[in-house]
Amino acid sequence: MHFLYPIGLLALAGLIVPLIIHLWNVKLGKTIKVGSIALLGESSRASSKSFKINDWLLLLLRCLLLALLAFLLAQPYLKKIIPANSKNGWILADKATFQQVFNSNKKTIDSLLKKGYEIHDFNLGFAPLTLKDTADNHAKQTNSLSYTALLSAANHFVPAGATVYLFADHRLSRFGNELPTLNYKLNWIPLNQTDTLSSWIAEYAGKKYEAKSSPSNTTYQALNLGDEAPINIAIHQTSGTADGKYLIAALKAIGDFTKRKIVINPASGKVDIGFWLSGDAVATNFKSSIAPRGALFQYENGKVIVEPSFMNLDGHHIKLSKRITSTSQAEKIWTDGFGNAVLTNEKADALHIFHFYSRFNPQWNELVWDGVFVKAMMPIVIRVENSTDFGFEDNSADQRHLSARQKNAFQSNNAESTVRTTQNKALGTLFWIAALLIFVTERILSFRKKPNYVKS
């Protein structure tokens, strides 16, 4: 038996109350008749006490009643281990492709059905399926939910500890950023993919790219190589720091990826973006060097908060050790684990001003070491409406699959979560019934007990 609030057991100290009452039992004295009291001298008054328990049953009932009340405060429950049971197993397959799944895995599915497995649609609601659904040749639409969301939702439908056989592909685009924690044992059987190469056209910043995708990677090649104006960027950093070095590496990666020419610290002319990597106030001449409708990215200064947290960027959690307090009401672009602003954006003086409440420094955070750094900086460097996911967009033609390392991590994550499955059963109702019965019994015995008076 376990307790949700063990501190409630401190109420057991109240057991001393009935014990004291039963031990402190004052008896009435006897009246004795005598012929003469002339020879009796005056004596001090005294009362007779007995430190002997005369009613063990009442004491036991009262102590037990108080103990039950203490247990109720602690909220007892039983923890039951539920082993995996093949008779409660599930077969999951998308109804839209169930016919092909059954034809390719008929022997395996028939064997599981003989063991008592149930077939369910791998879609929201997990509706039951039968073999009759394999004869349905009507065109159906494949579900659009991510596998991560569906596997997490299945926790509320699949019997705890059951074994699940999932027939689905290993396309990377169907997964979210975090692996789900499951309360069932998952056996993933990948589907045979006929088309392993695909392509599509993507557009970004006025340029068109041909995306070619295979199970291992996706590449982009610019189609309309024009004479786009270069992106001029000015960088100012505090002397003796390496923040600019990390930023320049990210800018070069963005240039290589988008095939856009990026000029850092041009000798003359206006710049499109200015990065002020210093806690000092932005210099007037630096701000004026930015072209109208350009952008200013500046370090903020203020009280430094040192606490372990993380930066939430596109679903990724980047370790954050230090940040600057923010009281700005500007739009939050990046936040920490507590919802505090790490990067905000506002429009002022015909500029987009990005206020950064941390630093491009590994002592402040691990952003510069993470691959998401380039993706996070791209919409700041190349500002295009509704195109922030270029190169990272979800496309139905994306053929990338989980790598061997990702598959191993996925299986390891599920193995740890399904070794033992527990279920908690509250015992509060049973304790209340027992307390009521004991209270009624104690009252009956108390009223039936006759006082032991000595008549004179």
Automatic annotation (TrEMBL):
<feature type="domain" description="Aerotolerance regulator N-terminal">
    <location>
        <begin position="1"/>
        <end position="76"/>
    </location>
</feature>
<dbReference type="InterPro" id="IPR011933">
    <property type="entry name" value="Double_TM_dom"/>
</dbReference>
<keyword id="KW-0812">Transmembrane</keyword>
<protein>
    <submittedName>
        <fullName>BatA domain-containing protein</fullName>
    </submittedName>
</protein>
<feature type="transmembrane region" description="Helical">
    <location>
        <begin position="6"/>
        <end position="24"/>
    </location>
</feature>
<feature type="transmembrane region" description="Helical">
    <location>
        <begin position="426"/>
        <end position="445"/>
    </location>
</feature>
<dbReference type="InterPro" id="IPR024163">
    <property type="entry name" value="Aerotolerance_reg_N"/>
</dbReference>
<dbReference type="Pfam" id="PF07584">
    <property type="entry name" value="BatA"/>
</dbReference>
<feature type="transmembrane region" description="Helical">
    <location>
        <begin position="56"/>
        <end position="78"/>
    </location>
</feature>
<keyword id="KW-0472">Membrane</keyword>
<keyword id="KW-1133">Transmembrane helix</keyword>
